[in-house]
Automatic annotation (TrEMBL):
Source species, domain of life: Bacteria
Residue numbers spanned by region Disordered: 97-117
Pfam families: STAS_2
Name the record gives this protein: STAS domain-containing protein
STAS domain: residues covered: 9-117
PROSITE patterns: STAS (PS50801)
High-level lineage: Bacteria, Bacillati, Actinomycetota, Actinomycetes, Kitasatosporales
Signal peptide: none
């Protein structure tokens, strides 16, 4: 059995995030995933401050970027307000949460494998 090692990158997301910041964050994650060939990304959200709808939008879009590259994304440092907001907008299946403050929060099921040429 050939088991490939997990390669992880860290993306620190600091707040407050504006709508204008979201495309740049997505581009940054896509570039880092391309360059590293990572299979996992940890998104450190501990310095976001008070979460807003823009925060949720940014995280959802980052999740889409990661999944398109066949990568799993986890949240680190997610506070109770952010976890509650994700629940209120119906993203608990996308951003499943462990106990608040209990390490990285894995988001969603494993992505499908990426076919590489």
């Amino acid at each position: 059995m050939d088991v490939e090692a997990t390669r992880t990158i860290l993306l620190a997301v600091r707040g407050p995030i504006t709508a204008a910041d979201v495309p740049q964050l997505c581009d940054q994650l896509a570039a880092r995933l391309r360059e590293s060939d990572a299979t996992d990304a940890v998104c450190d959200v501990g310095a976001l401050g008070r979460p807003t709808a823009v925060t949720v939008n940014a995280l959802a879009r980052l999740q889409l970027v990661a999944r398109r590259r066949g990568c799993r994304i986890r949240l680190s440092g997610a506070g109770p307000e952010l976890l509650l907001l994700l629940e209120l907008v119906g993203l608990t299946e996308v951003f499943r949460a462990d106990e608040p403050g209990g390490g990285p929060v894995e988001t969603g099921p494993d992505p499908p494998p990426v076919r590489r040429a």
